[in-house]
Amino acid sequence: MSIERITDDQLRRMGEKEGLILQGCGGDPQEWLDGINDMLTEAGILQNGSKFERCSVFSGEGCTCILFPFEGVELDVGKLAMWRLQTHEQFGGTWLSDYVPNQLGGFVNEEQSQEREKPKCPLIGADSNIFNLMGLAAKTLRRSGMSIEAKEMTERVMDCKSYAEALNTIGEYVEICSEEDMNEDPEIDLEGGMSE
Length: 196
What we know:
Blueprint: E1 2-5, H1 8-12, E2 19-23, H2 29-42, E3 54-60, E4 63-69, H3 77-86, H4 88-91, E5 94-95, H5 96-103, H6 110-115, E6 120-124, H7 130-143, H8 147-159, H9 163-173, E7 175-178, H10 179-184
Parallel strand pairs: 1-3, 6-7
Antiparallel strand pairs: 2-4, 2-5, 3-4
Helix pairs in contact: 7-8, 7-9, 8-9
């Protein structure tokens, strides 16, 4: 059995997939995986000895969530739908196909993701404290209408194990440049308006 940590961006690329998401899953994810397998087997939802062999953990709305993907699992979807409704108050269960459009702004495909242009962010010459750089990058993303990306970047940076890894992560979301580079761009006025 495997448990992986995923980001909002990875969830938004799962448009072709379906799964059960449980919200507010504190504690050991392995205990959740074992417990849900036992519970759904007992309820006759998981069939023919089938079990969830893997799950994905992510942060959503300030709590830990777990995605149980339907790939490679034999289950009675009708019974699962009833179980999800009956236990919603306890587990906050929802479908992947409902969660992403309602919480993350919808699914994206690889082409859309690659087309997304990274906004310029003047981090060169700024205070090099990683929290300062992360804050500047998040502000730049929000100003560019990319609030979801700002939240995702912040969560990913907080999980980084080194300064270099954190800086590389920031660079995935913004084009790191200097104040001079910003001033050379006629489209950008640092006072907040468009230059003529």
